[in-house]
């Protein structure tokens, strides 16, 4: 059996907001019914994996940055699509974007994804493009399944981010540790 260090060396990490239980259950049910694979626990990514090395040297800086940020509201709306990439639920949260930008400044990743920065599109991924998945059909299913959120978004207050870890290729991102926001 590989050691914790060996397991971590192939792991990837992200920082995100866990969806509340009721919303998470709806997302899981949708994924199961639509044939979408479960890539992670239902969450909204705040800092993607770029610059989040397996040695976790960045973690204390991330904790300190998050600890200075106030709690913020997230509003989850109806379905959207990134063509040829993913089906998602729309997220409106200026506070989330502010924490994202603060993390980019604090962590200064040598390379970052093009979608990172103040122009990011916060979202909760429902399904990623895979060979077996009809993304446009999945989008239509998502529009129907989450039509209520397009009319009345689901709002909640975030008091902590979570460190997510994916153990390696083929694994799923799971929350491993909370990072509390300022109280």
TrEMBL record:
InterPro entries: Cyclic_Pdiesterase. Pfam families: 2_5_RNA_ligase2. This is Phosphoesterase HXTX. It comes from Deinococcus maricopensis (strain DSM 21211 / LMG 22137 / NRRL B-23946 / LB-34).
């Amino acid at each position: 059996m590989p050691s914790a260090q060996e397991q971590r060396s192939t792991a990837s990490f992200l920082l995100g907001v866990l969806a509340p239980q009721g919303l998470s259950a709806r997302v899981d049910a949708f994924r199961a019914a639509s044939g979408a694979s479960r890539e992670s626990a239902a969450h909204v990514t705040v800092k993607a994996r770029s610059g989040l090395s397996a040695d976790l040297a960045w973690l204390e800086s991330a904790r300190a940055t998050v600890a200075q940020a106030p709690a913020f509201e997230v509003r989850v709306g109806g379905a959207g699509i990134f063509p040829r990439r993913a089906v998602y639920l729309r997220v409106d949260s200026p506070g989330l974007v502010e924490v994202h930008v603060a993390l980019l400044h604090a962590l200064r990743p040598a390379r970052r994804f093009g979608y990172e920065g103040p122009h990011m599109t916060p979202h909760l991924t429902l399904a990623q493009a895979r060979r077996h998945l009809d993304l446009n059909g999945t989008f239509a299913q998502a529009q129907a399944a989450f039509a209520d959120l397009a009319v009345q978004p689901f709002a909640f207050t975030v008091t902590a981010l979570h460190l997510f870890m994916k153990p390696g290729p083929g694994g799923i991102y799971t929350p491993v540790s909370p990072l509390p926001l300022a109280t």
